[in-house]
Amino acid sequence: MFGSMEHLTLQQYWWIILSLLAGLLVFMMFVQGGQTLLRTLAKNEEEKALIINSLGRKWELGFTTLVLFGGAFFAAFPLFYATSFGGAYFVWMAILYCFVLQAVSYEFRKKPDNLLGAKTYETFLLINGSLGVILIGTAVGTLFSGAAFSLNQFNLSQWQTELRGLEAVANFFNVALGVAIFFLGRMLGAMYFINNIDHDGLRERGRKSVLVNTVLFLPFFLVFAVWLLLRDGYAYDPVTGEVFMQSYKYLSNFLAMPVVLVMFLAGVLLVLYSVFVTVFKESLSGIWFGGPGAVLVVMSLFLNLGLNNTAFYPSYYDLQSSLTIVNSSASHYTLTVMSYVSLLVPVVLGYIIMSWRAMDRKKITSEEINANKEAY
What we know:
The chain has helices at residues 7-28, 30-36, 38-41, 45-56, 59-76, 78-87, 89-108, 118-145, 172-196, 200-230, 249-256, 258-279, 287-306, 332-342, 345-360, 366-371, and strands at residues 149-151, 157-159, 233-236, 243-246. By secondary structure, the chain is mainly alpha-helical. The chain has one domain. The strands form two sheets. Strands 1-2 form a two-stranded antiparallel sheet. The chain has a two-stranded antiparallel ribbon with strand order 3-4. A hairpin with a 5-residue loop joins strand 1 and strand 2. The radius of gyration is 21 Å and the shape is globular. Keywords: Cell membrane, Electron transport, Heme, Iron, Membrane, Metal-binding, Oxidoreductase, Transmembrane, Transmembrane helix, Transport.
C-alpha cells in the first residue's frame, strides 16, 4: 500500500501525522498549565496534594507525547532535526532541562528525607510549566518567522548567531505564540481540575481562573493570528525548489485548503465554547471541548505551515537554505517503513484512552490521597 505511493505523498502523509501529534502535545500541556496554578488555586496543603496528584496521573502521558513528536520529526524530516537541534541548541537545551525538572519533581517531591524540600520541587514544576512552555511556543514561532541558519552543498548547517536559538525571544511574534500557549495551558489545566477533582472550593476558584486566563490568552493569540495572516510567508516553487517571499502566504494557504481553515475555525469555537460552559454554565466537562479545540487549532496551523508549497523552517539569513517537506525528508524507503508502523497509532491512542478512563473513573478526593501511600 504505502510502497506504491509517490515520495511527495508520503511526505505529506507524515506532515499530517506530525501536525496531529503537535496538536495532542499542546492539549497535554494542561499538565504544565495546571502546575503554574498550584500556588494560586490551592489554599492549604490538602488542596495542594489534590492538585499535584491529579496532574501526577497524567504528566507521563504528556512527556511521552513530547518524545513521540520529537522522534517522529527526527525520523521523517531528519534535516530539520540536524539543523535546528544542532544549531539552536541553547534554546532546545533550556527546554530539555525544564522538562527534566518536571520528571524529577514528581518523583522526589514527597520522598522522605529529600534534601531540597517539597517547596523546591514545586518551584521546579512552576519553571517547567511557565518557562518551558513559553520557550517551546517561541521555538515553534520560528517555523513561521524564520531562523538564522545556512546550509552548504552537503546539507551541513551553520548557525549564524552566537545566541544559538535564544535570539528568537527578541521577536514578539514568536513570544506572542509562546505566551498564548502558556495561558491556554492554564485554561485547560483549570478545566481539568474542575473535571477531575471532587472539591467545591477548587472548582469555584478554577472557574475564576479559567475566565482570567482566557482574558489574558486572547490578546496574545489574536496578535499571533492576525500577524500570521497579514505577514509575508516563505513559499517555494514545486518544480525548481526555489524559495521566495509571497505576500499573505499563510492566509492564501487557508483559502487554498478550506478543510484546514474549517478545522482552525472549529477549533477556536470549541475553545471559546469550553470557556462559556465552564464559567457560565458551571459544567464539569469543559476540558472535553477545549482539549479537542486546541488539537484542531494547532493541527491546522501546522498543516498551513508545511503544505501548499510552504517552507516549514525558513531561513531569513539565506532564503535558499529554507527547509520544506520535500528537501528535508527521509528517503522513500524510510518513510514507507515508518508508514506501516504508523498503522499502530490508533492502537496506541486506544490504549491511552482506556488508561485515561480507568484512572478518571472516580474523581480524586482528599480521602483517597490520604489513604494512598504512593501519593505524589
